Amino acid sequence: MAGTTSPSTGGATRRSLLAGSAAALAAALTGCDSASPPATRQSTDDAKAPVVTGHKPKGKDVIDVVADFGAKGDGRTDDSRAFARAYAYAARRVWDHVGRTVIDVPAGTYLIRSPNALLDARGGKLKANGLRFRGAGKRMTQLLFAPRRADNAYLCRNEDSWANVMFEQMGFAAATPGASFFYSYSTGQAQDYRFTECEWTGEWTYGVALDGSNTNSEMRWDACRVGGAYRKAFLYSGLSQKSLSRPQQDQFLNYWFNDMKVEYAWGNFLEFPYGGSITCRGGSYIVTGRRPDDSGDYGRTSTFFRFPRGPHHDSVQRFHAEDIRFEVRDPDTVVIDCAWDSGTVHFNDCDDTAQAFKSFAQDSSPHRYRVGAQGPLVRYDSCQLSGQHAYAAESGGSGPRARYDMCRFRNHAQQDFIKGSADRVSFVDCLGS
After folding, report:
1. Phi first, then psi: what are they for 238, rounded to 5°?
2. Name one Pfam family in it (predicted).
3. Domain locations in the chain?
């Protein structure tokens, strides 16, 4: 994201960093030029080199919550204190704003009752880059989060403190229904999270809740399973929905989901009242049940991709889904509900027809858009689609804003596939039922 602050460069912007990198590359390529004296080149390079202050902290670079901090991992003993001590050890070993510790969590089931026990970075006083939690494998390392009260209880809390946080091969379960996994607040520091081969089960309010303004970006999920249920959403952008600067609030960008198994009972997968440059590639997405009660915000619907707010800052409205198999098991399952007033939405080689044979499918609308004068521009390429797609036209503008190219419609002929503003849609080489 051009123009945002990097947490490890003393306020330099990403543009300035890229410019500096380009200058360094140019210097390297011209280093054999005899017109530039070696002594001059050396002194110039030295002047630009970062100065590392202080001393490398003592202690082990890799710690074990069982061997080093006494966690039991038996599923019955409260291991909150062991995890809190492990995190405190890692925080103390930050040197020159860089983390130096890997926290290993061996195979076992760890009961955690205290909020923030896994990561407790409240207040934004620590500015650090690099923290890694490493499990023994999905379904082998399990963390049961069982706070006594679910309201505002998070297993991890990062308030403008850590960038580059990694979780690998671990499972997280909400043993207290309505607890939440991760609260991330940023005004320029919290960013670059990685989740690899992780799993979430149980009933959560939020999986990852983003708040504040500026960054909370560059987050990636690889080969993870999102199970359980979500009263709000697995990933929610812009928790407070307010900021002193709306353009800064919208700087929640660049989220990648690769080869995912999204298979949860009810709730929303991604909900973005703010921000959003989002890419989802590969995997299977299924809502297996229905909400147990009507929700004031959602009714009975469960939505994979919910973008409920129209106005946004420029360049933060982009969604791409590719090579995904969706299962729409009942009429309350929605693939996308988008109210963006600009930007782009693109589905490529996706299929949501697994349940197209069911009686409800013909009248269902699993893809829903509100389209204004500036869009969003919507495109479907080589997709197989069930039900009808709904388009509501906002005031202003005319002509197509959506295009279907070489798609197959399972429940309707092409002329009946669009519900609502069909004049906003065009078709190229498509097949109807």
Report:
1. 85, 60
2. Pect-lyase_RHGA_epim
3. 111-361+374-384
